[in-house]
Amino acid sequence: MDTSLFSPLPLGGDFPALPNRVVMGPMTLNQASESGHITDWIVDWYERRAAGGTGTLIGAAVFVSQGGRGWANAVGIADDSYTDGWRRCVDVAHAHGALFGTQLFHGGAASSNKLLGQQPVSASDWTREGFDPARALTEGEIEQIIDDFAAGARRSIEAGCDFLELHGAHGYLLHQFWRQDVNKRTDKWGDPLAFPVAVTQAVRAAIGPQIPLLYRFSIHADAPDAPNAPVTPESLQAFLVALEAAGVDAWDISCWRESRRGYFGTETLLSDWVRQFSSKPRIVAGNILTPQEATDYINEGHAEAVALARALIVDSQWANKAQKGELPRPVLDDSWRVINQGTDPGA
Ligand SMILES: Cc1cc2nc3c(=O)[nH]c(=O)nc-3n(C[C@H](O)[C@H](O)[C@H](O)COP(=O)(O)O)c2cc1C
After folding, report:
1. Beta carbon of 311 within 6 Å of any ligand 1 atom
2. In the beta sheet, which residues pair with residue 102?
3. 343 strand-pairing partners
4. Is this structure's pTM higher than 0.85?
5. Per-residue b/e over 234-268, b at no fewer than 16 CB within 10 Å?
6. CA distances from 148 to 106, 142, 143, 203, 235 (A)
7. Which of 50, 53, 158, 310 could disulfide-pair with 98, CB 3.0 to 4.6 Å?
8. 65 CA to middle of ligand 1, Å?
9. d(Cα 92, Cα 255) in Å, to the nearest integer?
């Protein structure tokens, strides 16, 4: 068995290295309390994955403002009452030698009047398919949300997080500002990079230089073939360069389920496009299921680490088994969806 999955990944500078190349991708499990506070169920879930040899756990998308909630029973970090719950998650990860970080999130238009008790918001007036119509944020509200991201970052650090991630992917608020088909603003926030850069700078300022900051992005909002604002190699380059200058230390590249697909009409994978424009470490997610697939992806130079979601849902011991040369449980159809009923299929 190739051991490269189990070598530490330096993140540069004085940052702690990731203990191995197996990262648990962020997963919204909808098992928080109604208010979004951490429950025993969630702590146990993280502990099993850390005990299973996963070197790095990225906690689920965590709403930084009440108006940024995306799902019922999803986790929050919108005020100080949430911090203790996250500390419990960090502690169980550390007890097994894993690193833990939160994924700071605002859903923007991907929400409903019913869930929020108010209208969802976005860069501009816009309705995301399947959701309630969102209204454009005022400039003052944008500044407030930037502060909310920074406050969520501070709370994450108080909880003991080893790193943080910004959820800039999948058509949520950060991505909505980047999408020029959604962001029609005529003020300074109409620059598609302005909001992602401002959030990144504010979070970097809040956490100081010692904590690594990851940024998750995807080109597509809903699915690999969903209609989207055209992103070109040039606009991707501008995005990566601006965010790196604002304080990003590593990329979490979300390819939906298609990390082997070429981008921009070429056969070049998204992560290889990223490498042309940035030398930062790349964590890649998207249908990487078996130890062999993960090892090959890294050995072929497409990523420095892999982010696994469904593979770690069905088998919390994935990494330990991979290290011993054993086969983890396979990801079968939609069997992993039982988590929606509160069952942990990977226990
Ligand atoms: C149940 C579930 C919840 C998810 N929640 C999030 C989330 O909160 N944030 C995020 O960026 N991606 C989320 N994702 C996407 C995964 O992190 C991952 O990118 C995607 O599932 C592809 O990886 P996989 O093929 O290993 O499952 C979720 C995926 C699943 C299956």
Report:
1. yes
2. 164
3. none
4. yes
5. ebbeebbebbbebbbbbbbbbbbebbeeebeeeee
6. 9, 10, 9, 9, 27
7. 50
8. 21
9. 29
Beta pairing, strands 163-167 & 135-136: unpaired
Indicate if 172 belongs to the active site.
yes
Selected catalytic residue, list 172, 215, 263, 297: 172
What's the CA gap between 207 and 198, in Å, rounded?
A: 14
What pLDDT was estimated at residue 120? 98
- Long-range (24+ apart) CB contacts under 8 A made by 327-336 are 327/290, 327/291, 328/290, 328/291, 330/289, 330/290, 331/289, 336/310
Question: Is 170 in contact with 217 (CB distance < 8 Å)?
Answer: no
Alpha-carbon distance 104 to 88, whole Å? 17
pLDDT for 1:
45
Q: Do the beta carbons of residue 138 and residue 149 sit within 8 Å?
A: no
Tell me if 297 sits within 8 A of 288, measured CB to CB: yes
Give the residue, out of 28, 63, 313, 331, with the most ligand 1 atoms within 8 A of its beta carbon, to mutate for a pocket test: 28
| Residue located nearest, by CA, to atom 14 of ligand 1 | 27
- Second-level CATH architecture of 4-341: Alpha-Beta Barrel (3.20)
Where the chain has pLDDT below 70, the residues are 1-3, 222-229
